[in-house]
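Question (not urgent): is this output format expected?
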Amino acid sequence: MLMEHKEYYLTIADTLLVLGQRLSEWCGHGPAIEEDIALSNVALDYIGQATSLYKEIALKENLGKSEDDYAFLRDAWEYRNALIVEITNGDYAKTIARQFVFSTWYYHFLEALEKSNDTFLQGFAQKSIKEVRYHFQHSRDWILRMGGGTEESHRRLQNALNEMWEFTGELMTNSAHEMEAIAKGIGVDNVALKETFDRIVTAVFQEANVSAPADVWMQKGGKEGKHSEHLGFILAEMQFLQRAYPNSKW
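Got this back:
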């Protein structure tokens, strides 16, 4: 059974799953024990949200699959995540810079998704936004702390923004399957979120005394399955057990 707007569901789910996997790499390596726990919790939030979307896809397709099939048994070109979530963590400043940018966009994405004609996505947004509000506050506080901290923390934060900014633009674009979902009143127009995103990000950066690079060529293609080499390494690690021992159960 073909599921209408499956690709739209996958765009959200894959983005959350890959970012959750990336953030989980900090477990045991955080700069302080509180941060080790904080980022691990954020990672679990994203993986939990992705799981609920995969479960809904499995339910609607009714092909005898589970959420694990969508997470572990697809190849890189079948993933629809935005490129920004698959780039390497780098140092803590780069991870926080990515997290702030992503959670700023994602919070307002969920606000708009609460108005979706799709009752499942509407409920998903209402539940998830409570978690994402904390993600935004946590990353914003760290941006301000790093920007207003030592010369070293400020330098690392600015370098992080310079390095990863080219991946931010894709969040405020609409792929073909996103446009289809928008036309049906199901999806969110990411382009319409850009003004709010720019306003909030600019205000926080000004307070932190850092800035985003101007006139940067924005990378895109992740939502169409065109990924960087990094995704292959993530999936190789994430999917190894299920691929090596099919249908294994704990």
